[in-house]
């Protein structure tokens, strides 16, 4: 029967000086011309024993010397250095074992339920985790585990926050690039109705409020379930005009026309949906409100912003906002949601959205 090699025998011997101990050299590499040995040394300390090491390189020599030490290719390692070498060998063996591709790799030590990523940038770690979660086998494994409410909430919150940031970036890019197509902004608002305030969490697929009237968006209130209207116009349309003779701002022709349009929508919707729409009885309206999104305000001064606020306050159940104000409102929601992930005392319901006084 062949001898098993699963068990290694190590003998620790005292050196001639009596100050340290050592073990027999272990040959790491040997050819007909060179040999590399690892020699362990045990150094007593007041709090235990350190393991030091010496890596010795030999060159084949004529008899009787046999092997001669090459000092310039030999090195001594104290315990700290030896441990660092061991750690780095493990790390790089992990890379070599798990991939054949060149690139950047992050190694995270996981023990006792905690991940130690030391001085790695958190952004890099997050990107690595996201890439891991794209692997189907990892996702399947996670679904079979009880992650706990805190971890589940953290995942959901972080993923949701990333989606909201991406949405806000998309809207900003549309505005900055000069896109004016009403359809583009309608598609964005349909996907991200949350930007109109935390009172609205979803949208209805229904747009028809009567046999002849279609609105851009119907948003149900998260509290009452009653629907409000959103009417979208192009961002390149004027919102306010200035009357130099009277030194005041007034609504542009496009805004005035849309206000009239919304008045009709509100009357029809109130009548048609008081007890639920005929074909969609779950869609109900009771004193509905309308928000008109039109134009830009990124270059406005304080006086013009104040003028829009004043004109809004004198409208009944209708409010005008610009696409820049919608963008700012969405950014504030993302900012508060991001803070709440780090501070559970932050309450997203305290977010000040578009001033509801504008509807009174």
Automatic annotation (TrEMBL):
Stretches with biased composition (Basic and acidic residues): 1-15
Pfam families, per database record: SduA_C (PF14082)
Disordered: annotated segments: 1-26
Domain Shedu protein SduA C-terminal: 181-327
Superkingdom of origin: Bacteria
Protein's recorded name: Uncharacterized protein DUF4263
Species of origin: Halanaerobium congolense
